Amino acid sequence: MNKKLYLFLSGLLFPLLVFAQEAEAEEAGRTLDEAINSVFQPITTAIETVVFVPVTIGEFTIPFVLIWLIVGAIFFTIYMRFVNFTAFKHALDVVRGKYDDPDDEGEVSHFQALTAALSGTVGVGNIAGVAIAMSLGGPGATFWMILAGIFGMSSKFVECSLGVMYRNVNEDGSVSGGPMYYLEKGFKEKGESWGTVGKVLAVLFAIACIGGSFGGGNMVQINQATQQFIDVTGGEASFFDGKGWIFGVIMAGIVAVIIIGGIKSIAKVTDKVVPFMVGIYILAALIVLGYHIGDIPEAFGLIFSGAFNAEAMYGGLVGVLIQGFRRAAFSNEAGIGSASIAHSAVKTDEPISEGVVALLEPFIDTVVICTMTALVIIITNYGGYGAEFAFENGEALGGITLTSSAFESVISWFPFILSIAVILFALSTMISWSYYGLKAWTYLFGETKAAEVTYKVIFCAFVIIGSAMSLGAVFAFGDAMIFAMCFPNVFGLYFLIPKVREAFDNYMDRIKSGAIPRTK
Q1: Tell me: the pLDDT tens digits for 69-79?
Q2: Model confidence over 108-164: pLDDT tens digits?
Q3: Which of 262, 244, 225 is nearest to 429 (CA)?
Q4: Taking a C-beta distance cutoff of 8 angstroms, is the pair 123, 395 a contact?
Q5: How far is residue 407 from each of residues 142, 288, 413, measured CA to CA in Å?
């Protein structure tokens, strides 16, 4: 217990120590950003070397993590007999509350669990990431992005079904679930030696999840939101230019108020923010597409022809395929395991019911939102700059600037709305990842109030740090940790999926026979 307390206090003091070192860094002729980056760079490089180890396919190199996620998704789809299609209609019925029972164990409804998980994936990647894929892979990348999203639906189904199946319901009614629990418990059912393997996988996942929550799920998000806020309030002339920490303090306060109440409080925010921001974004996309309605057939033609007959400038077929698969995997996080932590808190006695709800997540995130973004970019001729210009100047024009230009070509005031959307996307992502990190933290250090408060304080402190600094190495570390989560998770899914299929067959038989009645 003393060791745990020491770790809590050390973690609590770390953000303060970072600021305390600023004067020392300046005396040495380096900025604080440079000093921290110099410390994290070798660590980040080592992690990235393992997580993003390259595999050569012809003339191209592709991170093995991408192959790991896509192959897993295809296997899960086939093994579950294309559950992403066969259970789609039932998923809509469940998320609409037609099978809700308020007396079931859990903390949130099916809809709230879905929005909480979506808030962790729907974000800047849907806006900026798709533009980068277009710049590097051309219109054809959209086809492979959609295909990867469809297969990813099966990964989400499997991991989120297991999340509910093996969750812990605590004495106070709160729930703890996710890969940490189904890896440990599921493997333990296979025998003592298997239990040891499961425990190791669970601990590795939890460590990666905590690192990812502080980096990719927090500091990266607030840093992007801060930059957008400064831009929309005047750029270099903004009062906040050079004072991003003030915005960070405000956002940290908002995050603290939301996450202090746990998943119930988070869900009450996400079930309003997520539909609102997604609705606004899709509405704007529909306006742009409506303005260019006559060009829509040609846009789809470019997507399909580009998918199989890619021009040399886009790296050929393999290059386009890689860009599409990469964007889908990095956007919807299917196979990462993070979403199952949020879905585990659902009010249900039927684990499969939440699994089918979860499969809607990659569909909304990738098949709908990412595709809408891609269509807008293509149909406006890359925001009026032309596909060739966008490709040749991918680094300069790519990302959010390209997407903003595409929308602005029809809706002149959209860049302002886009800035607000980015801030909301960042906020929703942070609060969801705070919950993911918290559950991983308490899995390692115990379900105590001290552990919970310590993690939340550290998380909010990193919001301020992330808003004030440009820590490239730290951000890369956070992203690498997020994708490191997929290795123990997908590995475990291969061994636990037979139980999911057995439970799914039983569940659907009872749905068809009426043994599980509708409540609405």
Answers
A1: 889 999 999 99
A2: 788 888 877 777 777 666 777 777 777 777 788 888 888 888 999 999 999 999 999
A3: 225
A4: no
A5: 18, 7, 9
Q: What is the pLDDT of residue 8?
A: 45
> Which of 225, 249, 272, 252 has the alpha carbon at shortest distance from 434?
252
Contact between 422 and 228 under an 8 Å Cβ cutoff? The reply is: yes
C-alpha 166/C-alpha 163 separation (Å) is 6
CA atoms of 297 and 46, how far apart (whole Å) = 46
- In whole angstroms, what is the distance from residue 316 CA to residue 143 CA? 14
Residues 413-448: pLDDT tens digits?
887 887 787 788 888 888 888 889 999 999 998 888
Burial zone of 98 (CB within 10 Å; 0-12 exposed, 13-18 middle, 19+ buried) = middle
- 82 conformational bin, left if phi > 0, alpha if psi -120 to 50, beta if neither: left
pLDDT of 12 reads 47
63 neighbors 72 (Cβ within 8 angstroms): no
Residue pointed to by tokens 């639906």: 153
What phi and psi, each to the nearest 5 degrees, are found at residue 142?
-60, -40
CB 342 within 8 A of CB 435: yes
> How many alpha carbons fall within 13 Å on the CB side of residue 290?
7
The CA-to-CA distance between both ends of the chain, in Å, stands at 49
CB 307 within 8 A of CB 148: no
Residue type (1 letter), 396: A
Which string of b and e fits 177-201 if b means at least 16 CB within 10 Å? bbbbbbbbbbbbeeeeeebebbbeb
> For the chain, what's the residue count?
520
Question: Rounded to 5 degrees, what are φ and ψ at 169?
Answer: -105, 110
| Dist CA 370 CA 240 (whole Å) | 31
The DSSP code for 260 is: T
CA 79 to chain CA mean position, Å: 25
Our CA angle for 28, 30, 32, nearest 5°, is: 110
Q: Residues 220-241, buried b or exposed e (16+ Cβ, 10 A)?
A: bbbbbbbbbbbbbeeeeebebe
Q: Are 465 and 219 in contact (CB under 8 A)?
A: yes
pLDDT on residue 431 = 84
In three-state secondary structure terms, 329 is helix
Structural domains of the chain sorted by starting position, each given as residue range(s) with its CATH number in brackets: 30-513 (1.20.1740.10)
